[in-house]
Amino acid sequence: MPPEPHRLQLATPDGATLAAELFLPDGTGPHPGVLVLHESFGLNDDIRRIAGRFAEAGYAALAPDLYSHGTRIVCLSRVMVDMVSGKQAREIADIHAAREALAARADVDAERIAVAGFCQGGGFALVAGAQPGFSAAAVNYGMVPSDRSQLDGICPVVASYGARDKIAGRKMAEQLEQHLVALGAPHDIKTYDNVGHSFFSQVDGWQGWLARVPTPMRVGYDEQAAEDGWRRMLAFFEEHVR
Hints:
The structure is a single chain. By secondary structure, the chain is of the alpha/beta class. The protein contains 7 helices and 8 strands. Strands 1-2-4-3-5-6-7-8 form an 8-stranded mixed beta sheet, sandwiched between helices. α3 crosses α4. The radius of gyration is 16 Å and the shape is globular.
């Protein structure tokens, strides 16, 4: 069974707080850590499942709720606008505040922390990984900045995209590959044929219904691609984080 989460309130640079859930592996540690950044659906049961799976693999997994910095609906709207406009300073500051909280724990090794993001969180993970503090970044169908300088100093990156995704698919993967080659950053990027966006995600209820609505992103879970993506993520973290 996946571990039960510890619910936390984290301090942010501007004096506010950020809700987060921590999933701890067995043993006393110090454990390697991973920050798990949610999709546009927010910190839901699927992100808890993913964070729990990292914990089962031996990582202290912290999942911050990026929509909890202030009134939820206002915060959600702000994060969406920031993501589209590329003005992500507040979100990146919140992510690094969460990283610092994870690193400060006695049961976590501050020198061995990764960041893993999905969809919206994948784009944030990529930009956050260009600042000091992360040993590796997992970018799952995340947007890639066109300005390569935003990724100066990037940590090693493992990334996964779906070929049927017409928004954040093969072209995004190719752009990321070009950036990382030019920057000399270790990387493993793979585009999966026959799958679209959010192929790691297993959601139900209204979120599952919304995910099935036909869009150019061809959203949908795919077990084969997801399991191969997990294998690659954990192998990459084994090399660069553990």
